[in-house]
Each structure stands twice: as C-alpha cells, then as structure tokens.
Design a protein that fits this description.
- The complex is a heterodimer of chains A (179) and B (196).
- With 179 residues, chain A is mostly helical.
- Chain A has two domains: 95 residues, Rna Polymerase Sigma Factor, Chain: A, CATH 1.10.1740; 83 residues, Winged helix-like DNA-binding domain superfamily/Winged helix DNA-binding domain (Arc Repressor Mutant, subunit A).
- Helices cover 69% and strands 0% of the residues of chain A.
- The longest helix of chain B has 26 residues.
- In chain B, a hairpin with a 4-residue loop joins β2 and β3.
- Chain B folds into three domains: 51 residues, no CATH class; 41 residues; 82 residues, no CATH class.
- A three-stranded antiparallel beta sheet of chain B has the order 1-3-2, with no helix packed on it.
- Chain B contains seven helices and six strands; from the N terminus they run αααααβαβββββα.
- Classes of the chains: A mainly alpha (179), B alpha+beta (196).
- The interface between A and B is large, with 62 and 39 residues.
C-alpha cells in the first residue's frame, strides 16, 4: 500500500503542479535512470513524464493518485524509449556514471558499499539485460510485489522471478569480486 | 529435506513469494547455516539495491520544473521533440550534408556547365581537339531543353550519344562539345554544331 500523495489537495481542489513536481520528481528521475541504466537518458525520460503530467492536467482528467500514475507513465516512457531501434543504436554505449555521479551512501547498509564497489555495481547493473534491470528496480529497489511488477511489465510472475534470480546472482558475483 | 540449500536454491527462495517452496522454507527454519547464508544473500541484495539507487540519485542535478513546462509549451506550439521517423530523416540529411562538406573540403569542384550557345561560332569553326583522352573520358549529360551540358568526371566509358568535352585553341575557358561513339577515334567525333 502506497502512501497517498502529499501533493494531493485537501478536498476537491486540484493539486498544485509545482508541489507535484517537487514531491515526485526525485523519485521519478531515479526510477528512469535506473530503468534505462543511463543518467542522461533517464533525465530526458523524466522530463517526458512531467510533460505528460501537464498534458493530463490540461485534459482535465485527474488520476486518483498522482504518484502511482506518474510511476506508471515513467515505466511506459522508459519502455517506449528502450524499445525504439533508434535509441538502441544511438545509446548502445550510453554514459558511464562519473566518479562524481556516485552519490554518498545514505543508510548503514549503503555505507558498507565502498565508492569503488558502488561504481562497479552500477557498471554491472548496466550490463544486465533491460528486462532484468527493470525487474530488479521495481522488485528490489521500489519494493513492488511480484504480481504488480509482472502487470506493469506485461510478463508472467514466473518470468519476473526468473529475471530477478538472474539479476541477483549476477550482481552478487560483481559485489563479491569487488570485496 | 536434510541437505543444505545451495546458492541457486537460496536465490530461488529469495526471489519467490510467500507460500512458495515450502520444503525449502521448512529447512531454512531449522538450519542455522542455511539461515545465515540466506541472511547474507538478503543483505547483499539490499546493499546492491541501495548502491544502485544511490548511484541513480546522485550526479547531475535534476532539471527544474520550468524545463518540463518549456518542453510542454514547445510541444503545444508544434515544436515537440520530433518522432523517430523525423529524427531518422534529420540524421540522413545531416549525413548527406556532412558528406558534401567532406567532398568540398577534399577539393572536388564540379565543372561549370557549358552553354553550347556560348561557344563562339568563329571558335567552333576553328575548333581543334587538343585534350581529348579516350582512356579518361568525360561523360557529359546533354539537356536539349536548357542547352546545358553537365559533365561528370571519371565516368567509365564514353557511350554513344554522350558528349566528350575537349578544349580548343590552347585550353581557354570555352570548349567544344564532341559527340562520340565507343571505340571511335578522336577524329570521328563530331562537334556539337553537327548535332544541333
């Protein structure tokens, strides 16, 4: 169960767009970057999501929960972008994260990962298949249940588990090789 | 189940949902070694997820909302980011322009079209073939409507009906057009005046 949007209006009034952006942009940006495995492309995709938000708002159809709506749109935007042949060709190498890009660890468990390990994990993460990346992000990072991940990506629950299994195994190998 | 779970089985258990793999879960509940391995796996996965999330959160600062607003406004005016097809056409046009620029940089210049009408009659009468080279002919495309001949350097052969360009009188800017047939000797080529 997700928390209601903090930008949701008290009653009746539509949410303030700036507040929606402030509340959701960091999460959507992070999600897009992870889904696409590329910081610049993630940035572009996140902008697209909020452009669609403006369009949705203009159309006068207010989703029940903007957070869930934005997440869904972000997943679709990343999916569309990733499936485009042009994008595959253009972004076949993508941009590696620079050392300065790797953020300072926040939690106690994050702190157990050194800067070098973090960079190596990101490199390994980018080498996963796009589907493995998507499943890992939604299941492990975003904490979605298997069924929701499958519904969002239009794959079976078994496929979700298979992709997650492979992703976890591969990323653990990388973590161990860096230890 | 008496045997301990190997790493693949532990990973399968980790990615499974509650209620699945009951035998393995029962074993895990009673085996300290497997429980420790499972906890290590779960901890590694959390660390990896945290590292990926931290990496994706850092770096370049997020764009301001006005950027999305500007993009939206541009889209409404019809200047949205172009679709794939448009971008492909753009890329092709860019490639063609780059190729032309490269050719220009390498020094190739197309010959100026020769207006047959501009060849002085007097010069035509005294036309003399001085630079015709059968092994390196110039194929010229004749446009009877505009009376302009376009040459194309380096063509493979001079075909019947094509025209070959030859300087006359010591190689000035003017020229005569000679219509040649394959294998013909230079002398057998006719001047353009004979074909008009």
């Amino acid at each position: 169960m997700r928390a209601p949007d903090s930008a949701d209006p008290p009653k009746g009034a539509p949410p303030d767009l700036d507040a929606l952006y402030r509340d959701h942009h960091p999460r959507i940006l992070r999600l897009c970057r992870m889904m696409l495995g590329d910081p610049d492309e993630g940035d572009e995709a996140a902008q697209e999501v909020f452009v669609r938000m403006l369009g949705q708002r203009r159309g006068g159809v207010e989703p029940a929960q903007w957070g869930a709506w934005l997440t869904r749109v972000a997943i679709n935007a990343c999916h569309d972008r990733r499936r485009s042949g042009w994008w595959k060709w253009w972004r076949r190498d993508g941009r590696e994260l620079l050392d300065s890009d790797v953020a300072t660890p926040r939690s106690a468990e994050d702190e157990a990962v050194t800067h070098e390990q973090g960079a190596a994990i990101w490199r390994g993460f980018r080498k996963l298949s796009p589907r493995q990346r998507e499943v890992f992000v939604l299941r492990q990072v975003e904490g979605w249940p298997t069924r929701e991940v499958g519904a969002a990506l239009k794959i079976t629950d078994q496929a979700v588990k298979l992709h997650l299994f492979r992703a976890v195994r591969r990323l653990r190998e990388i973590l161990r090789s860096e230890q | 189940m008496s045997l301990c779970l190997n790493e693949n089985e532990l990973t399968r258990l980790y990615v499974s949902d509650q209620g699945e793999m009951p035998a393995e879960r029962a074993h895990l509940a009673g085996c300290a070694a497997c429980a420790a391995s499972y906890e290590e796996l779960a901890r590694d996965s959390r660390m990896i997820a945290g590292a990926i999330a931290a990496a994706a959160s850092g770096g370049a600062t997020a764009r301001e909302f006005p950027a999305a607003r500007r993009k939206d406004a541009a889209a409404r005016r019809g200047f949205a980011r172009p679709g794939i097809a448009v971008r492909l056409i753009g890329a092709t046009a860019f490639g063609a322009a780059a190729a032309i620029a490269a050719v220009a940089l390498l020094g190739w210049r197309p010959s100026a079209p020769v207006r047959v009408a501009s060849v002085p009659r007097a010069a035509m009468a005294h036309g003399r073939l001085v630079a015709y080279a059968p092994e390196r002919p110039y194929r010229m495309m004749w446009d009877p409507i505009s009376a302009i001949a376009y040459d194309e350097a380096g063509s493979a052969a001079t075909r019947s009906g094509d025209v070959a360009f030859a300087n006359y009188g010591g190689g000035g800017d003017y020229g005569d057009l000679l219509f040649c047939a394959p294998g013909e000797e230079n002398e057998m080529c006719a001047t353009s005046a004979d074909h008009r």
